[in-house]
Design goal:
Layout lengths: L8 H14 L20 H22 L6 H24 L8 E3 L12 E7 L6 E6 L5 E10 L4 E8 L11 E7 L7 E3 L6 E7 L10 E6 L12 H31 L6 E2 L3 E2 L10 E8 L4 E7 L6 E7 L14 E3 L11 E6 L8 E3 L5 E9 L12 E6 L3 H4 L8 H18 L3
Parallel strand pairs: 6-7, 16-17
Antiparallel strand pairs: 1-2, 2-8, 3-6, 3-9, 4-5, 4-8, 10-12, 11-12, 12-18, 13-16, 13-19, 14-15, 14-18
Helix pairs in contact: 1-2, 2-3, 2-4, 3-4
């Protein structure tokens, strides 16, 4: 296996620091005194050395992955490593369940098929304790809260509580206050069970407009004015080790997930029947479908999605590392609010590397391979089979024959759409 000619900068820096940290300088032994073997350990150096070792091991695994193909996929693989370590450090080293702040997963830290229409907020919590959550809905279409026990996304946990948008009472100005406690409270309430580990909140945007996008905040009840005690070396070392575990798990989970659930679960250039995600630890009322595309030059994947009774419906592209594509300066996702219907009443989407001239273009950029995610939110009951999506591989020059009532779009309109999307995302940037 060839090594990269330009090593990962972060790896070089951490490795250099790790080598220095793993061998702390020793004071010279005074003349005539016997040299003593030091039995003491350095918990910070040991934990940091574990992080360095994990980083090296993950890089090797990523380079062996089937997703590590052409130049764009190799770049994506290293970006995936960088994002994963940043996420692990934020989640395990910086966050604190007693003095919590929400960690935001957005276009900076893309992972796990992150939805461009959502602003994800995570906070660690102590199971069975009381928390107060407050904020504003803003221009979001929906707001949801969920409690995790463990980590459902890597198979080591489950959903332990859920509060739907329909269950949240908003003030006339769109503000809200939600109590997350073990005992029931008046007003908006979500039970925090003893096994709770993470509070997960979503703002969901069906329309990327120029209105304020809202926000969300959290406090542990009774800790709002307390002085935070200093941490010990052992405590920080434990956090570094936890970050190393999370980083390694995250980095390895998603490319393996793509191979298992997308590449090997059905034919390429197709979409699967929708599934109820709540049964798999996801959101109540959310159904999802997906597929795997592989395009040659001048080819396109044509996807037909009928309208439904869902309160939100959207489609997006992701890479082989399960990260969303650029979605501010590149239209790689669309909601039904942002899409046009064709003469048969359905939404026809074109996945292509070059502009097909149709309004509902999902721009794959320079990627020839990737994944497709389709979501329906706020579904009551089950989706009818007549609302299931379908897909077919076509040549770009045959689209007009296949789409009933194709909606032509010129470059000026494309530019205006991208400009509006970027402005909305700028408003969503609360990091």
């Amino acid at each position: 296996m060839k090594r990269s000619l330009a090593p990962l900068c972060l790896l070089a820096v951490i490795t250099a620091l790790g080598c220095a940290a793993s061998a702390p300088p020793q004071a010279p032994t005074p003349p005539g005194r016997p040299t003593l073997v030091q039995a003491e350990t350095d918990p910070l150096a040991d934990a940091f050395a574990e992080l360095v070792a994990t980083l090296r091991a993950v890089e090797a695994d990523i380079r062996r992955s089937p997703a590590f193909g052409d130049e764009q996929e190799r770049i994506g693989g290293y970006r995936h490593v960088l994002r994963s370590i940043a996420k692990g450090l934020e989640a395990e080293v910086r966050q604190d369940p007693d003095y919590p702040y929400f960690r935001i997963l957005d276009w900076w830290l893309r992972e796990g098929g992150d939805n461009p229409d959502q602003r994800y907020a995570f906070s660690p919590i102590r199971g069975g304790e009381a928390y107060r959550v407050w904020g504003e809905l803003g221009s979001a279409t929906r707001l949801e809260l969920q409690i995790y026990a463990g980590r459902p996304w890597d198979g080591s946990g489950r959903s332990a509580g859920y509060l739907t948008f329909e269950e949240i009472e908003l003030e006339p100005d769109g503000s809200f206050e939600i109590w997350v406690t073990p005992e029931e409270q008046a007003g908006n309430w979500l039970r925090n069970p003893p096994e709770g580990t993470t509070l997960f909140a979503r703002h969901i945007y069906a329309d990327w407009n120029d209105e304020p996008t809202g926000d969300i905040h959290i406090d542990r009840v009774g800790f709002e004015g307390r002085r935070r005690p200093p941490e010990t070396e052992a405590e920080l070392a434990a956090k570094i080790r936890a970050a190393s575990v999370m980083f390694g798990t995250t980095a390895r989970t998603w490319p393996a997930f793509v191979q298992r659930r997308y590449v090997h679960s059905g034919p390429k250039n197709s979409v699967r029947p929708p599934l109820d995600t709540y049964a798999l630890g996801g959101s109540r009322g959310r159904w999802m479908s997906g597929g795997y595309f592989e395009l040659e030059e001048s080819e396109a994947l044509l996807i037909r999605i009928p309208p439904s009774s869902a309160r939100y419906q959207g489609i997006q592209l992701a890479d082989m590392w399960m990260a969303s594509l650029e979605h501010g300066n590149q239209v790689s996702s669309l909601t039904t609010t942002q899409s046009v219907t064709s003469d048969d009443g359905a939404y026809w989407y074109v996945v292509a590397n070059e502009d097909p001239g149709h309004a509902n273009w999902l721009d794959a950029g320079a990627l020839r391979r990737g994944t497709i995610l389709i979501r329906w939110d706020g579904v009551e009951g089950a989706l009818d089979e007549a609302q299931y999506p379908s897909a077919e591989l076509v040549r770009l020059d045959a689209l007009a024959e296949r789409i009933p009532g194709i909606r032509p779009v010129g470059e000026a309109e494309r530019d205006a759409v991208r400009r509006a999307r970027r402005e909305h995302l700028q408003r969503r940037a609360h990091r």
